[in-house]
Write a structure and sequence with these properties.
The structure is a homodimer.
Chain A lengths: L2 E6 L7 H12 L6 E4 L2 H6 L3 E3 H4 L2 H6 L23 H12 L2 E8 L1 H16 L6 E6 L15 H19 L6 E7 L6 H4 L14 E3 L7 H13 L4 E7 L10 H5 L15 H13 L2 E6 L3 H4 L6 H19 L5 E10 L2 E9 L24 H7 L11 E2 L2 E2 L8
Parallel strand pairs in A: 1-2, 1-4, 4-5, 6-8, 6-9, 7-8
Antiparallel strand pairs in A: 2-3, 10-11, 12-13
Chain lengths: 407, 407
């Protein structure tokens, strides 16, 4: 019987351990051993390899869906071009042979799909057909092609929509005019920023203005937009914006404004787009301004995971394992949306080279013509992804997490 | 029959609407009308007054405990010294008479208890004994005297402990040495920062180092502490610190480091303690450093409210209403802890002048001798306050909030 190895890569999400669970559950009666490599492809090359049956048991398996980040650890390492240097690939094959690994599943984003593609190409060129490499998607950025949406995104979107609801409440307690700038992750794609609009689903105002990084950000239009909102007697203006908003020359707002931000040693500091605009808005309107960076929690707040996201992430793990066992080398498991109402999806796969190194941005139809909000089309796309709540197991007042390795 | 008026004041918390609910539920069959003033004492003076029976119904009443911030709005306004100017007080009495208000309950922190004390003194001096003013406590800072702890604090502590657990997961995915600095609210008192230690309750490492603002912060000792942790082969060092950490001269770290932080217009910007130390640590250790400001969400994340906090906040509202109806002018409702194991409290009251304008800091016994962690005594004090989860009502994937006023 054959062995399977799984590893996780790239930035953490709330759902990547659900995909691990899906792979493990699907494969464990169909293969001999399931190995896990710690710290992604880097750990695999270092032979940082564990027999998962020895570290996964009933209790920590059931906790994986409520455990954020990467239970197996991660890395950010690109493999070299096999045409330039094949050493890494030769080492990988040696390790696969040593552990009798015939299936390798790599969970990750567009960089990780580059790894899947390169290994798969190397295997093909080398005429090796008994080692199968397959990808499973993940990224809070929701920017992978070939899949309707990405594991981890729905939970991040739910966290952002909920947080914006709560921040709106917080902002609106005083009667004085005020602007609150909320910076949301997304350097190249504005999906998470768009998700801030989901805060309106139960009747709240939500952000007065939403700026996604797909559109050019013009500071004068921005002032006009705020002015317009104040004229509408909206005293508390909450603004959601992508970290990656940039001017017409493609220069990030965070860079433009940062020229005077020097740290103790005179180094230029990147202050973040919201922090930079904070100063501009204060100067222009003379009102109270607050800038909030929705921090790393947006990618790891498992306590408010989207049940839809978690269930789909498990399914995508199962699908990836199924692809591997069906010898579909170089594929990545995908979600195809069949309908919105009722929300229905099916699980397919696509060649990883169509995903690798590419960024799927918010389409024009999802951003309002004014460029300062999203459309109903965006809401309809986003809404199903945040539905449902995972029943979180708490102990001592805090959520319980799975520990695969003793720390 | 007599009328009662309630208002909310100061910074928002998760639990202040629970206290409003407690007051409303306790008093509604015992008084004629219950009024609410919007935007605190400022709104009261502007006669921004509403008959709550006309805006509170069964459905929004039951949603109050899961609605963050101040459903009635808030303000930050201190009344003038009655010896210098009695105009505000005369206006207040006029308004109370106009609406036949005999009971006024003000929910707030140490500034709001200044208001309660001043009005109560004025009533006494003026020989008015048929108007009773009473305070109900609230503050995420947990810095009020006379009460064992403060409504809103337990929920903020639960959010922080959970967030630190999740951030620790996020930080530990890579194998490279890294320092993560987490800044937590608290300019004068380190209670919330201490609560970061509750992240250890289920076996997680929690913060490697904790710096509360009660102790002098010395940058060289800070470097030594980090160095020590790296030597213990701890690769991922997560550090919790109060926004108010300061040097031996009382100067805030955020001020010390900010001298070079100039915005676009050359104004000095306050970059926050964690952001400032970020640069220092990078320079000293040359490793990856990340600074995270746990933002406003720590005071409004109702979706992860502590059930203990919510229940107690309701009880403190009931107790305040009871004090008012018993003509205990100038009192504030309080919690007295009877025992930790089992956790038992009782509800009492104390004169508001013992609370007004004072700050209760973390006692020495709760901070470790090294000054870079908290003691078991702190954990034992804090742990009961975050227990239990409120069953949150969700709709469309986000929590439902109570709307008392159409926006």
């Amino acid at each position: 019987m054959k062995n399977l190895l799984v590893a996780q890569s790239g930035g953490p999400t709330v759902a990547i351990n659900s995909t691990l669970m899906g792979i493990y559950e699907f494969a464990r009666k169909k293969v001999n051993k399931i190995y896990g490599a710690r710290f992604g492809i880097k750990g695999l090359l270092d032979e940082n390899i564990y027999d998962l049956s020895k570290i996964i048991d009933k209790s920590n398996l059931s906790l994986l869906p409520q455990t954020p980040a990467c239970a197996l650890g991660s890395c950010r390492q690109k493999l070299k071009d096999p045409n330039e240097s094949s050493e890494q690939y030769e080492n990988l094959i040696k390790i696969f042979r040593k552990y009798s690994i015939n299936y390798f599943i790599y969970i990750g984003g567009n960089d990780s799909m580059d790894t899947v593609t390169k290994i798969s190409n190397y295997l093909k060129i080398s005429g090796i057909d008994d080692i199968i490499v397959v990808g499973a998607p993940k990224t809070i950025d929701n920017d992978l092609f070939e899949t309707d949406h990405c594991p981890g995104f729905g939970s991040a979107a739910k966290y952002i929509a909920t947080s914006i609801c709560e921040l709106e409440r917080d902002c609106s307690v005083y009667s004085l005019p005020a602007v609150t700038l909320v910076e949301i992750m997304g350097r190249d794609a504005g999906w998470l920023t768009a998700a801030s609009a989901l805060s309106r689903l139960n009747g709240a105002s939500g952000p007065s203005l939403i700026y996604c990084c797909e559109k050019v950000f013009d500071i004068q239009s921005f002032f006009n937009d705020i002015d317009e909102k104040f004229k509408q007697k909206n005293n508390n203006i909450l603004i959601a914006l992508s970290e990656g908003i940039h001017d017409k020359n493609g220069k990030y707002i965070s860079e433009i404004g940062s020229k005077n931000y020097l740290d103790e040693f005179g180094h230029k500091q990147n202050a973040g787009a919201a922090k930079i605009l904070d100063g501009f808005v204060k100067k222009e309107f003379g009102c109270k301004v607050r800038s909030i960076e929705i921090n790393t929690l947006q990618r790891c707040a498992a306590h408010i995971a989207s049940l839809t996201d978690i269930k789909e992430s498990i399914k995508l793990g199962e699908k990836a394992a199924e692809c591997a066992l069906n010898n579909m080398c170089g594929e990545m498991s995908t979600i195809i949306r069949k309908s919105n109402n009722p929300y229905q999806v099916e699980y397919k796969s696509a060649p990883s080279n169509l995903v690798a190194n590419k960024v799927k941005r918010l389409p024009d139809g999802m951003i309002s013509e004014s460029g300062n909000d999203v459309t109903i089309e965006a809401i309809e796309y986003l809404k199903p992804l945040i539905q449902g709540e995972l029943k979180i197991q708490y102990k001592n007042g805090i959520p319980v997490h799975a520990n695969l390795f003793q720390t």
